[in-house]
Structures are given as structure tokens and as C-alpha cells.
Amino acid sequence: MKRVAATIAKHLEGIINAVVLGATNAASESINARIQRVKRMASGFRNRERFRNAIYFHLGGLDLDPATHTRS
Predict the structure, then answer these.
(1) How many helices (H) and strands (E) does the chain have?
(2) Is 51 helix (H, G, I), strand (E, B) or coil?
(3) Whole-angstrom Cα distance, residue 12 to residue 50?
(4) Measured between alpha carbons, how far is 8 from 13 in angstroms, rounded to an integer?
(5) 22-31 per-position pLDDT tens digit
(6) How far is residue 19's CA from residue 16's CA, in Å, rounded to a whole number?
(7) Helix, coil or strand: residue 46
(8) Distance from chain centroid for Cα 57
(9) Distance CA 34, CA 59 (A)
(10) Domain segments of the chain: what residues?
(11) Quick count: other Cβ atoms within 10 Å of Cβ 38?
(12) Taking Cα atoms as reference points, which of 69, 37, 71 lies closest to residue 54?
């Protein structure tokens, strides 16, 4: 119990901020999960550049059908 109390006391400011602001790391965890899925699908990459390119391709939000856009 003393250890739990010490841990809470040590992180009290952050705990209060998270509760008051409703801040979570859900968005970053979601992005990380999507990156890990890309990594599993590829079964390994030859180098970091190809892995980075795959992440940009799958998570970049690119429109792969530009014909749907009209010119202004």
C-alpha cells in the first residue's frame, strides 16, 4: 500500500491533468497498431527506407483515384 501511495503521489499532477482534460494516448496507440499491421503484412523489409515508404503509403491518406476530383 505504501508503494502504491508513493506512486500516486509521484504522478498526481499528471493523473489530475489526464482526468480534467480527458487526455489519452489512444490516438498514438492506434497509429502504432496500424504501423505494426503494415509490418506484419510485409513479413520484413529490406531496409528502413522501404518500411518508411510502406507506412507513408498505407497511413498517408492518399487519394488513389484522382479522377473523382473536379478541377476548379
Answers:
(1) 4, 0
(2) helix
(3) 42
(4) 9
(5) 878 888 999 9
(6) 5
(7) coil
(8) 15
(9) 8
(10) 2-60
(11) 16
(12) 37
Task: Give CA–CA dist 40/50, Å, rounded.
Answer: 14
Residue 50 corresponds to which cell in the numbers above?
522501404
Structure confidence by residue, pLDDT tens digits, 22-55: 878 888 999 999 999 988 887 777 888 888 888 8
Residue 68, C-alpha cell as written in the block: 473523382
Compute how many other C-beta atoms are within 10 angstroms of the C-beta atom of residue 18.
Answer: 13
Residue listed under C-alpha cell 515508404: 53
Q: What share of the chain is helix, strand, coil (3-state, %, to 5)?
A: 70, 0, 30
